[in-house]
Design goal:
heterodimer, A: alpha+beta, three-stranded antiparallel sheet, 12 strands, elongated, B: mainly alpha, two-stranded antiparallel sheet, 7 helices, FlgK_helical (chain A)
Chain lengths: ~525, ~290
Amino acid sequence: MSTTSTFHGLEVARRALATQQTALHTTSHNISNANTEGYSRQRVNFEQTNPFPPASRNRPEMAGQLGTGVKAGQIQRVRDEFLDFQYRAENNKAGQYAARSDALGRLEEIMNEPSDSGLAKTMDQFWESIQDVATNPEDGGARRVMVQRAEAVTDTFHYLDGKLKDVQGELKNQLNTGATQVNSLIREIENLNDQIGRVEPNGDVPNDLYDKRDLAIDELSEYVNIKIEPDQDIGGNPSALAQGIPSIHLADENGNAIPGAELINSNNDVKGIEFEFSGTNDSLVENINIGNLNNANDEEGDDPTAIKSVTNTIAADSFNSTGSLRGTMEANGYVDENGDPAGDYVEMIDDLSLMADEFVSAFNDQHQKGHGLDGSTGQDFFTLDTTLGDGAAAQISVAPTIKNNENAIAASDTAGESGNGDNALLLSDVRDEELVDLNNQSIQSFYQAQIGDLGVKAQEANRMANNTSSLRESVDQNRQSVSGVSLDEEMSNMIKFQHAYNAAARSMTVVDETLNRIINQMGIVGR
Amino acid sequence: MRVTQSMLSNSMLNNLRQNNTQMSKYMEQLSTGKKINQPSDDPVVAMRGVDYRSELSKVEQFERNMSEVRTWMDSSDEAMDEAGQSLMRVRELVTQASNDSYEENQRENMASEVEQIKDHLIELANTKVNNKHIFNGTHTDTPRFDNNGNLSGESNNKAINIEVSDGVELRANVDPSNAFSENMIQGLENIVTDLRDNNTTGDDLDGYLSDIDQYSQNIVDERADLGARMNRAELIETRLSQQEITTKDVMSSNEDADMSEVITNLRMQENVHRAALSAGSRIIQPTLMDFLR
């Protein structure tokens, strides 16, 4: 003899309808977000409701326990945190090498070697023109050509120097934009944390907010290496699946937290970063500052992604958080532990200037010993014009006396001998002269070594950029494999839930019919 | 492993991108004809490339210098050849005149012929090639003698050296004090004066013969020296042209792309690309939805 309620069956069917409908809605949500970046598929955890009768002293005498139906326990996102950790590590390295390979690639384009239009070729043509003067010292034409070729050399130096400095300026902008980007990601995470913190104590699981936050952290990992420490100290009555507010630290290349560089703590207090450039050379990074960001409700017009007060300073040389910021910084140039400039662009600029400087002084030394057609002697062929910019590569120019009067070229080693080209021969030997300040290398082999060095560095960066980006792709594939939406799967789930819904509706109809039988058709015998 | 549609399309896109990168690399090799276009493609090849280029430019310059040397040498040789023949004619005339059987007006004719030859020798000594006086040491802008056969103020016997290969300099001119000495011109002038002087005896004229032989010998010596240098120049020239070929060869094998290899690679890559595209078109399209009513 059953003692369940008359409407028990209706209630069971109603629960089934509601739960299957929730599952259908979730399926539909999954399909909608099949192509949303950072989305993890969601799943409804079905649970049986408490069976009847519960254990008690006055439990009814009946066969027990009788099932009472289904409920949607939780809606959970399917995600593997370990894969997130792997993805961010690879994304971080990929960011670093991509930035470096990009910067070095541009450096290679500027240097344009080996080619028939780079500095090496221009220098070759200059040396040739000196030989022509040596064989035809009395010929004004040959001398004119030598002056023009010398101007081509100085132009090439100026061009390279200027271009390198231009790109350095762009890299500096990239660094500043990168820091702003990091800060605005931190702001975004702060904001999401805020919303999450309001939802979690109620026992709900904000899956979509988690996804957004993880996406922002993924993006952050491209710029700097980060260490994430979970914090499940949530107030109220949180679900077991709630994630709380994890703290985010800047981390070094081994993934260990850098002391004093906590970007977000578990109370959702945030800090930002900024680059501080050297006072002596404003294209070099001197420090990385960490500090409190402007508050949005501080004075109006304050940029909420800019730092208000610095709390910690890391010297550029010991800033070992890998990522695109450091990759860019290493390409651009920074102040090393001895206070000297280091980095690919600044080194190339300095080397070019060193080369130009040595070239000018070695060439002038020899030129001063000779005699020109016009009787001049002791003249400089090149000068360093300090009005043209910083560094010998920017300043090198043909001396005005030579530019205006090609007969002042000191081709002869004896005064008054127009057919004497012996000093010009010695000038052309400067090409192979080993110079102490160029590590006992000739100008040409010094330059060659720079190009070789650049090639090796760029090759390494390209290879690492390729490797890390394919590693990132493969981790991302793994992650997609866990969290990605499969349309086939969703379609079959949809059919499954739809059938269950239909069946629940049918079971409700059956209960309806039994009730109809009792209420409307029983006890009317003989009417 | 669970595989989803977006994974399929992502990995297909990735692979296509890689195919395209490879293809563009082969295309670049094909259109530039070079194995490398950036130092990072192969740093060693790039460094050597810079080196070979400058080596080649040196060799080409030395070849240009060499042709300058040849101009100097050939012109000097011709001028000295003519000078030698002229001196022989003078010797004939002096020998003729020395047998005392000629009359006054015949001696006058001989005298004027010797005078003409003397003027010719001055002209030869002042030979100008490419706007340069080649018999005046390093003072190439002034003639050696003035019209009267006196050395001009600016004159020396210094060598004109031209570099013809690394560290090797070749003397391009001859020593004008041997080939066209002031004594020689003076000697011829004396002969002219003596021929016009009726008191000059045959024996007096005989005395000039040994002088003339000495002038000839000087020219012959200088030509022998020049000849030896011309031989050396020829050797160097041969070596330079061989060096040019070798350098070009090495440079080409260092950085030029092997066309048949590149084209084969490109074809292979094209096939892979096609296969990837057709696989993509098959995989991406259907989903379960296509088969549900």
